[in-house]
């Protein structure tokens, strides 16, 4: 057992994904996208891959979904977050920055129609797992999600 593993056991902290084998549920993906059609497309593709999907329509909805999950009778935090960069309220980058400041290591996939080089650099510096530029193939999104948090099959 290495020092990191020993510290995790002592503190009770667990690395992401927070999959509880006894939970017996599919990994939970929080999808934040302000375009209803795109959100529905993402939800269907991820559900077909074996994920439980929680949706948010904007930045405040994303934050609310995280807080609601933390405050639930049985904590329901996301195992993966997929968020649009430009949304009403808070941008996906702002949410990633806040999560990282709070010590969250939840993998985040950012999706954007405005993926210039600066945005990609900013996302990398904040610790986003990946940035997908729209339009992207749904297979690429699902493959990225599976690499980060494999679905239970």
Automatic annotation (TrEMBL):
The modification 4-aspartylphosphate is found at residue 84. Residues 28-149 form the Response regulatory domain. PROSITE patterns: RESPONSE_REGULATORY. Keywords: Phosphoprotein, Two-component regulatory system. GO terms for biological process: phosphorelay signal transduction system. Residues 1-26 are annotated as: Disordered. Gene3D superfamilies: 3.40.50.2300. InterPro entries: Bact_response_regulator, CheY-like_superfamily, Sig_transdc_resp-reg_receiver. It comes from the Bacteria. This is Response regulator. It comes from Myxococcus llanfairpwllgwyngyllgogerychwyrndrobwllllantysiliogogogochensis.
């Amino acid at each position: 057992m290495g020092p990191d593993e020993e510290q995790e056991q002592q503190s009770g902290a667990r690395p992401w994904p927070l999959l509880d084998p006894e939970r017996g549920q599919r990994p939970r993906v929080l999808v934040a996208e302000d375009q209803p059609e795109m959100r529905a497309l993402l939800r269907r593709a991820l559900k077909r891959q074996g994920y439980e999907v929680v949706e948010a329509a904007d930045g405040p909805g994303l934050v609310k979904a995280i807080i609601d999950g933390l405050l639930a009778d049985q904590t329901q935090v996301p195992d993966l977050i997929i968020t649009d960069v430009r949304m009403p309220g808070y941008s996906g980058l702002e949410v990633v920055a806040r999560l990282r400041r709070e010590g969250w290591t939840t993998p985040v996939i950012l999706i954007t129609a405005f993926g210039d080089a600066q945005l990609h650099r900013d996302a990398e510096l904040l610790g986003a797992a990946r940035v997908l530029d729209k339009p992207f193939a749904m297979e690429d999104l699902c493959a990225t999600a599976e690499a980060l948090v494999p679905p239970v099959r």
